[in-house]
Amino acid sequence: MNYRTPLVLLMVSALLGACSDKTAPASADMAADVVADVPAADTASAEHVPPPAATAPKTEEMNTPQARKREAGMMRAVFGKDYRGDSDDALADLPDPDNHVDKLSYVVSAVSHRLLPDGRAILVANAETANTEGTAESAHASSGLLNVFFLVPKGQPEDGQWQVVKRLENIAALGSSGQLGEVHWVMLGANKPGLAIRHGYTGQGYTITQLALFEIGDGKVTALDGGIDLYSDNMGACTPDMDECWMVDGKWRFAPARNGGAYDDLLLDFTGASEKIKPGVTVKPDEDPPRIAKPLNGRARYGFDGKGYKLVEGKNTVPGV
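Above: the chain sequence. Below: its structure as tokens.
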């Protein structure tokens, strides 16, 4: 992608400024903020990374031989004869997410799992529509479908055998190209485990990335927000006659709730910039017009209102697409 030089320079300045700001909090309130209990691999991924790829890579802790073997055992327990060891996925009939009555054929792949202190496990899987040959057939605009399975050990723990106790199939549609996006295990508060899924879409030169939050209870998953804007740009569509070009990126973290609530607040730090064509300038063909650049930095705080996460302070500076 061919980024515009002035905008890139402004973005670099903003990012460098953000790095230097980390040595001195902007306010007493920010100084009191503490990052929630997130595994090291996931904490790193909460920093700036490019928009989600069509197939999100597994985190380091999920990409070890032991973790992959454990995940395969869970998939066999969930899907039985429908699990295909050669392709490490399952061809299964799952509820149609639109009407929840009819069943359709899907290719289901494990995305991540988490072992609980009491020995139980939670498996997160992605489903995408299958064609008549039994392979995935997703268009660029097709979402991935979220599936969550709760399992308990069967026999001795070292046997690697599992039994399914709860199936939550096709409960949310996120992402693009048939993939959910990046799955992160987080703590939403004391004894409140959850999922943060970074998902997005790129089309016709525009990119948008959002954060979806889910609470995981005892055999249930509750959606708390499906679309908090994290990142956007229109650099792929930034032609000389485009009036405004932009790139904004947000870093996310959790901190104790200001109101003392049981759910932590979600904090976002944005760095970015936009360029607009200078007023009164006549744009000539194949000539880059002079532009006026401005930063789009900012901070936003989202709090839990009893049903989901809502903006309670600051501003989300990510432009919509």
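Residues 5-21 form the longest helix (17 residues).
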